Amino acid sequence: WHALLISFEVTAMWNGARASRLILPHGLVHTPVFMPVGTQGTIKGLTSEQIKACGCRLILSNTYHLGNRPGGEVVDEMGGIHKFMRWDGNLLTDSGGFQMVSLLKLARITEEGVLFQSPVNGSEMLLTPERSMEIQNQIGSDIMMALDDVCPSTSEDMKRFEEATYRTLRWIDRCIKAHKKPHIQNLYGIVQGGLDPKLREISLKEMIQRNLPGYAIGGLAGGEDKALFWRVVKQCCDHLPKNKPRYLMGVGYTLDLVVCSALGCDQFDCVFPARTARFGTAMTKQGLVKLKKREYRGDKTLLDPSTQVGRSYTRGYLHELATREATGSMLLTMHNIEFLQNFMKELRESIRNGSFPDFVRDFMKTEHPDGNYPKWAVNALKAAGIDL
């Protein structure tokens, strides 16, 4: 399968939205695709078999945490991540860089790399572009992410955004040079530049010149104004190569998935579906169902017809589990992950059969029956050619 390192074929389009076949070393992935996040090698509370049963063929794993425990060498000795976690699907590893933002009290960023305190024993670790590539090569993921310098999107410090944009470009060259397995692992570059169109333009132009197998749009989904968010997504999708996959990092709400697919994104990831499940919340077409609420006590309606869990259990039963049991969290995690897989499948099919605008309008009506649509989404969809 080495020959099929990455083959990306757009099979249907509706305006900017695209349905594609992404062939990776561990098989075919249909896009647009949502990739659930499993930090320690599995999605919290789910086994590899359960993840597969949810319909996933591409999941995300976290380099920073795997590099800490059990360590890249251990995964390598056990034959790579696929054997280690008995997962025969595709796997994308992040660079470990995002943890700079989420664990910033533990991190300092220098030209050399990111200086961390290990959460395991407090010792100092330096994550350089070279070390990130080394760990990801040991893990053996199908898609690896470059180490980028991330600045929180809500920051006001323009100098810092500029520094992060240019440093990310210097680091991509160090990543390319250090990447030892380009014949079996695909390295994606990450476009940075905050909310500034000029910085994004510089990052886009330079990243595209590196001619990588795929590109990610980074530095968003951090609480910034959605009116600015969608414009950056559109700018990136308008300029990134048509024949390469585009991965929007950190997006997992259904509305964002719909809008950003309309703008031309192919891959998404987010901890939200699994995390919200652990707090007793289920995703449905009608919106979020907070099953811990007393109103669901004794509710005999099934959760949602679109998933195995949703068809099998009543809201009342899941309410009892969600308030007390680990089983509840596992079932809701399975439900949310399968819900999103099915949701994206419907979205893809609507692009293929030319009914994407209908899919979008039906979705908006169902999620907002009062017709009170978020203004940013209306504007973004209009820019993508869909008038609500």
Keyword list:
388 residues; alpha/beta; TIM Barrel; 2 domains; 43% helix; tRNA-guanosine(34) queuine transglycosylase
Give the total of beta strands.
16
Report the end-to-end length measured between terminal Cα atoms.
44 Å
Q: Indicate the low-confidence ranges by residue numbers.
A: none
Radius of gyration, taken over Cα atoms and rounded to an integer in Å:
20 Å
Q: Count the helices. How many?
A: 16
CATH architectural name of the largest domain: Alpha-Beta Barrel
Q: Looking at the structure, what is the overall shape?
A: globular
Overall structural domain count: 2
- Beta content: 15-25%
- Main beta sheet, described? 8 strands, parallel, barrel
Sheet with most strands: strand arrangement: 4-5-6-10-11-12-13-14
> Structural class, please?
alpha/beta
Mean pLDDT: 91
Top-tier CATH class of the largest domain: Alpha Beta
Question: Would you write up a description of this structure?
Answer:
The chain has 388 residues and is α/β, with parallel strands linked by helices. It folds into two domains: 240 residues, TIM Barrel (Alpha-Beta Barrel); 107 residues, no CATH class. Helix content is 43%, strand content 19%. It has 16 helices and 16 strands. It has an eight-stranded parallel barrel with strand order 4-5-6-10-11-12-13-14, surrounded by six helices. It has a three-stranded antiparallel sheet with strand order 1-2-3. Strand 2 and strand 3 form a beta hairpin. Helix 11 packs antiparallel against helix 14. The protein is globular. The chain starts with 6 loop residues before the first strand and ends in a 5-residue tail after the last helix. The mean pLDDT is 91. Its EC number is 2.4.2.64. Keywords: Glycosyltransferase, Metal-binding, Signal, Transferase, tRNA processing, Zinc. One of its GO terms (molecular function) is tRNA-guanosine(34) queuine transglycosylase activity. This is tRNA-guanosine(34) queuine transglycosylase. One of its GO terms (cellular component) is cytosol.
